[in-house]
Write a structure and sequence with these properties.
The protein is mostly helical. It is built from 6 helices and no strands. Helices cover 73% and strands 0% of the residues.
Length: 148
């Protein structure tokens, strides 16, 4: 399968899991698929393949993670770029799933976290920061430790 097709497929494949988090966050399907290890394992296979392949087959000359210039060269390889993109997709979904579970534990109404969830999907750290701020205001404590 062409690398562009893989990229398109992983982008499309992540959306149903986000829809579950947004619309039925506590359903059996969401618990089975999103709140388990199923998604990281499924996407992990794609990630591992492209991550390993980009190192075994060798990336472009000058590629490294030691400088911005080296990173630019590394990401000029579509295999490395797809691996990095899958990394983002999986970690953002993991953070979104944590937000849903944490909000439930903390008694935060699901509608209150829809915007942070959407932002986590589109701009990971921004959504997480908004959720943490919302959580702090809602609970009147700015810590991620669980209440005693």
């Amino acid at each position: 399968m062409a690398i562009e097709s893989i990229y398109t497929a992983v982008n499309a494949a992540i959306i149903p899991f986000w829809l579950l988090l947004l619309f039925v966050p506590h359903s059996k399907a969401t618990n089975l698929l999103v709140h388990s290890g199923a998604v990281p394992i499924m996407f992990g296979g794609v990630y591992i393949y492209y991550f390993v392949i980009s190192f075994i087959m060798g990336g472009p000359e000058g590629a490294s993670m030691n400088s911005i210039a080296g990173l630019q060269v590394a990401f000029s390889d579509p295999r490395t770029l797809v691996a990095a993109w899958v990394h983002y997709l999986v970690f953002d979904l993991f953070v979104g799933a944590w937000q849903v579970r944490d909000a439930r534990r903390e008694g935060i109404h699901h509608l209150a976290i829809v915007i942070p969830l959407l932002l986590t999907f589109m701009a990971g750290p921004l959504g997480l920061a908004l959720y943490i701020a919302l959580r702090g205001v809602w609970k009147k404590r700015f810590t991620l430790t669980e209440a005693a």
